[in-house]
Amino acid sequence: MITITLLSVSFLLAISLKIKHYQDRHLATICWYLHLFFAVLSGICLLLFCNGYVFKGIHTDRIIYSLYAGSGMVLYALMEDKVSGRRGYLSVFFALPFILLGALILPPLRIYAVVAGIWLLVDGEFKRYPVDDHYALQTRTTAVINAQYPTYSLVQNKYWLLEKITDDVINPREAAYNVQGTRIKPDSIQLRIFTDRKEIDTTIGVQ
């Protein structure tokens, strides 16, 4: 709910500013630099994600993306009504909710809008089960996409601020209510996964 909350607040604030025709050049300048800051962070997040890394914290990356898009919405409302490249760029953020809504209305685009909306707005349910100071097992469940069986990922602490995520380290096709992990060797972890129907005992390798 973090993503949809941040974007909803930003969009409603932008709508309010547009209705009141509120414009403040100094505030717009501050928001522009904040937007650029979040744009740089979003670019770093994307590069890290392509290499299997994220910033520490379950929702840190999504919060950064949301603040990047949300600041663009608010900044669009604060800018003067003049045609410019910057205003055209910011209009994409402000128009995003209308684009999704329009796609939902059109039957040929409805399924794509639903998938895009889930991917963009739904954070999913995350649970982490620590193994030791360096590793943890994470389960992720996202509505519709994998609502029945979670994705099991291995989380490894890296370089103070980063985590390395390895998805689908196991695929028991069961929803766990508890996981116990033990580092039995430097290169292996023993996992005991407790589900409603059975107990799964397995070992995974680590680097």
Q: Which tags fit this structure?
A:
transmembrane helix, membrane, transmembrane, 5 helices, 207 residues, 5-stranded antiparallel beta sheet, 8 strands, alpha+beta
How many discrete structural domains?
Answer: 2
Cα-based radius of gyration, to the nearest Å: 21 Å
Low-confidence stretches: none
Q: Determine the number of helices (DSSP H or I, runs of at least 4 residues).
A: 5
Which class best fits the helix and strand makeup? alpha+beta
Keywords: Membrane, Transmembrane, Transmembrane helix
Transmembrane segments: 32-55, 62-79, 91-122
Topology readout:
Elements lengths: L1 H19 L4 H26 L2 E3 L4 H19 L6 H21 L1 H15 L3 E6 L4 E7 L9 E8 L3 E6 L8 E10 L2 E8 L3 E7 L2
Antiparallel strand pairs: 1-5, 2-3, 3-4, 4-5, 6-7, 7-8
Helix pairs in contact: 1-3, 2-3, 3-4, 4-5
Structural overview:
The chain is α+β, with helices and mostly antiparallel strands. The protein has 2 domains: about 120 residues, no CATH class; about 80 residues. Helices cover about 50% and strands about 25% of the residues. It is built from 5 helices and 8 strands. Strands 1-5-4-3-2 form a 5-stranded antiparallel β-sheet. A hairpin with a 2-residue loop joins β6 and β7. α3 packs across α4. The two termini are about 35 Å apart. The model has no long low-confidence stretch (mean pLDDT about 85).
